Amino acid sequence: MSDLSEETIPAATANFWRQPATRRWLGSAAILALGLIAGGYLLGDGLTRARAADRSVTVRGLAERDVTADLAVWTIDYSASAPDLATAQASVENDSRAIRGFFAGLGFPAADLQPTGVNVSQYSDNGVPRITVRQTMTLRTRDVRRAQEAVRRQFELVRSGVALEEGSGMSYSFTKLNEVKPEMVAAATKNARASAEQFAQDSGAGVGGIKSASQGYFEITARDGDGGLETPDKKVRVVTSVDFYLR
Fold first, then answer.
1. This prediction's pTM
2. Are 244 and 207 in contact (CB under 8 A)?
3. Could you count the other beta carbons within 10 Å of the beta carbon of residue 143?
């Protein structure tokens, strides 16, 4: 380095190189040590912040709401048997008129009641041929209160001679789920945050924003646990899983 002069390098660099070799080495070591310390601090601080950002708690939130069914469907199965098709068919047609009259008397529009299936079968009874005609009528209505009244008075049909087959019954459905979904999801998330805050309080932390969330299935059941489709009183239930940051 003897060919370098102050005319070709900055004064500070020239002064550095004029110092004894031992002092130059100590100065370089000090600069290197300061760099390592600064780098280690920044790395450690970054890892600390990364660990803090990764702290989270996963909780479940529940929301339930009582609702009333807005659709009633009654599937009515009935049949008649006779030695010949014409007689069996005539008997079924008489039952159909009785059923239509029953629902008309309760105030249902004719369009609410429609035939939805017919089946003809033949068998032998001790060598005597028998033909059975089975008919299905379906009542579909939004007037749930009137549908309940029809169910209460169904034995009037039986007294008029209509033999209702096993399996005939009214079912009630809630079809307005999309109208209650937003509020229920918000309520489930609020419930989840309350659980997260309790957890955070117990562990000496605070609750931050949502890291991730998943919505469970909406479940519609009988409000009182029994009855299934046979009751208009329903309960809508949803469970969400929410991952909150902790701070």
1. 0.70
2. yes
3. 17
